[in-house]
């Protein structure tokens, strides 16, 4: 039994798809600049094993009981430690009790427990075997996070110092928990957390994420149906509970989003309540954030870092990952960056045990650079040396830093054929990396298929670079477009084109043209140039197109860190759809399918992209 538990914990992080206040410190401004380097941190196990204690039910203030399990270290004879320990808390929507019947299921991390920590796992309300109704990070659920912290802090196995840990769902709960500023909560280690629910994932560009959202809701419900504690008698109860949740919250939410009923397709208090970025400024405890260059929360992870760093020591690590890989830190250690368990142990030993691990001195920002295919470090994000650089789309489908002439032609892309671009890096990304497991080049990043005339993408490409070209941060595409319909979808992919013509997708963005209004006061600028537009996405901000009349639409393309190597070219590929990443609500979709989108590129309508460019000399190795 003990060997099975150890194997379960060792394999736990590998299945992290399921994972889909204290005193504060001043930010170490020097970390990440000259002198700050990565180092590996490790110490031997203190205990021989780990044991899960029996399930407990903890009653919340409204009478709902949440299911809680605790894992404690054991000595060589199998005796459970009977004195208070620092605690690592994980709050999940994925039925923590399945670790009892599925040894490899990710619930407890024996690496931490055997080094002197208690690990507590909680099913949030309405999930797993907890009571109540699940409504995805609702206000009531967020209050539960505080009340669970109240309970954990005073248990006999707790010394009153609590850190939070876990990926995806379990990363999101950490930010909301830290916002309560509970005195027992000392630190956060959030792996792939969401920032802005509406813009990051559910309605990127004003379009429903048809790839991930149904998959995620099915995952939460499906895992809750499975019998826990090896007790088949719980199956009927679980089925009834799951069906009730589906009918009360999940189906109505999806239907309202797809149809646009009750304004669910617009940004609102509903989505802001579920957005950690809205409360991130209340986080006052040391926080470590892990993200991925093509993660489903690619946009929000660095933005959470930006907000939280103002109040406390905060670090950001962004690897070459989609959601599955990011959840586990796949490929680490590499280039001097340790594996995630070692980094987290360094973090917890510093902020829960008070050991001098040097955690506060590691680089502030660590990012993988595609093109270079290695990690680099920096003192901040966006990169402090980034400058805005504009490239213009030309009538001959070139991409230059010279503005177009008055008589340059336009290009068109067809809405219907653009829906054929299913095989893409974007499809893999927005199914949390699941489809990326299929060995097709177009799901691994090769974008040539989606650039064929049949598919409908229009490409604009630079001449081969005369020297390496380093891009780090968000990208903005300022596109002059027109349509015969009252709306249009805009999908933009940034790619790197090798000398042999192979086009590799780096990042992407989408926008519903009628939702193009920009609030410049909330948009990001570098040197006075807007580089990350902020769209209100409200009903009041909607601006329908007029047939044939050109309008300027600023598309937010999610951040990347890449080097376009000497001899390679930079490309933007523009089409009208990026399904299943984006599916316009039914009314918008019908409007978009009726028209042909024209991309203007003349002196009066100079379409362009704005890039955050950093000197190649600023690339700094992690060690």
UniProtKB/TrEMBL annotation:
Residues 1-18 form the signal peptide. Pfam families: Peptidase_S15, PepX_C. One of its GO terms (molecular function) is dipeptidyl-peptidase activity. InterPro entries: AB_hydrolase_fold (IPR029058), CocE/Ser_esterase (IPR005674), Galactose-bd-like_sf (IPR008979), Xaa-Pro-like_dom (IPR000383), Xaa-Pro_dipept_C (IPR013736), Xaa-Pro_dipeptidyl-ppase/CocE (IPR050585). Residues 345-610 form the Xaa-Pro dipeptidyl-peptidase C-terminal domain. The keyword Signal applies. Keywords: Hydrolase, Signal. NCBIfam families: CocE_NonD (TIGR00976). PANTHER family: COCE_NOND FAMILY, PUTATIVE (AFU_ORTHOLOGUE AFUA_7G00600)-RELATED (PTHR43056:SF10), PEPTIDASE S9 PROLYL OLIGOPEPTIDASE (PTHR43056). This is Peptidase S15. It comes from Solimonas fluminis.
